[in-house]
Amino acid sequence: GPDLYEIERIGQQLEIIMREIPGTRSVFAERVAGGYFVDFDLKRDQLARYGLSVADAQGVVMSAIGGENVTTTIEGRERYPVNVRYPRELRDNIERLSQVLVPTPSGAQIPISQIADIRKVNGPSMIRDENGMLAGYVFVDLDTNDVGGYVERARQIVRDRLDLPAGYSLVWSGQYENMLRVRERLKIVVPVTLVLIFALLYMNTKSTFKATLVMLAVPFSLIGAVWLLYILDYNISIAVWVGMIALMGLDAETGVFMLLFLDLSYQEARRNGRLKNRADLEEAIINGAVKRIRPKMMTVAAAFMGLMPIMWSIGTGADMMKRVVAPMVGGLATSFLLELLVYPAIYLLWKWHKEVKHQRFEIREAL
């Protein structure tokens, strides 16, 4: 908003409101007007009388009172700046500051009190700005991992209890702002990832049904991912979404392996003329699924051996890595079971209605 003192007042009201919200560990509103300063209010008419400019007066204040570096001493590899200003006893109170001499073009020296009013004032120790407007921060430390849920509850409470004056606005920033930014990006990344996986599967299988069948591993694995996140009491976060995206690639890999063995078993039975009825088709598919158990177990076990040490780690960054790995561990467990149980059944229905059933009908017509 436009006024720092009003911003400080609003911040103090927010501090009181936020402290009562469940999940708040501590809250602190910046005191933006908590600094103490000495102001030199220059008298422009007196400056003109003595032939001085504003820059001349400010130069005296800067060099005599504030201090100014005039040179640098060199001692071997060390460098020390030399700063010159009045000694402390000549600048430690308003009365002595008023006696600082200012040289004039005529050669005379006048006390600075003749060209400036000197006074102590309170002001902002630091001025923040956002989008060209003055700003003040209210820092909130949370006692919960659900940042999004906390902010949504806090938004509603603040909206009901705080009346913002005209010209002032309130923005929720920090981790919540980063979460919103990543969420908008994930709305693009996740669909693009799914489309790319489907396109690669279609290029490999040349079949829309087979590509769709492999993609069914994604909802299968999400079941285990969500349940494991619930058991571990993990909230949905950026790290969890990263794990979900990585899980999609693992699902596609294991799904392709399953489909490959089913196809091989079906083609072998067809070449040998053993697809005379539905029972023969079921036997061929079951045979392919059984052959897939061992290699699929080896694939999932190898992934588990690589991921489980991260779930037990306690070092730096372990909290984030656990949330990346948890969806992959839970998803692999359920996709392993569901692909063995559901894929063969779907494959059976597809092959029976699309190829085997029509093939038998054509043979009967020929006979």
Features:
367 residues, alpha+beta, two-stranded antiparallel ribbon, 11 helices, 10 strands, elongated
| Largest sheet properties | 2 strands, antiparallel
Structural class: alpha+beta
The main sheet orders its strands as: 1-10
User: What's the SSE pattern?
Assistant: HEEHHEEHEEEEEEHHHHHHH
Helix content: 55-70%
Structural overview:
This protein has helices at 4-19, 44-49, 54-66, 94-97, 147-161, 175-205, 208-215, 217-232, 238-271, 278-311, 318-366, and strands at 24-29, 35-42, 68-75, 78-84, 101-103, 109-111, 116-123, 128-130, 133-135, 138-142. The protein is α+β, with helices and mostly antiparallel strands and 367 residues long. The strands form 5 sheets. The chain has a two-stranded antiparallel ribbon with strand order 1-10. It has a two-stranded antiparallel ribbon with strand order 2-7. The protein has a two-stranded antiparallel sheet with strand order 3-4. A hairpin with a 2-residue loop joins strand 8 (128-130) and strand 9 (133-135). It is elongated. The protein starts with a helix and ends with a helix. Mean pLDDT is 82; it is low at 360-367.
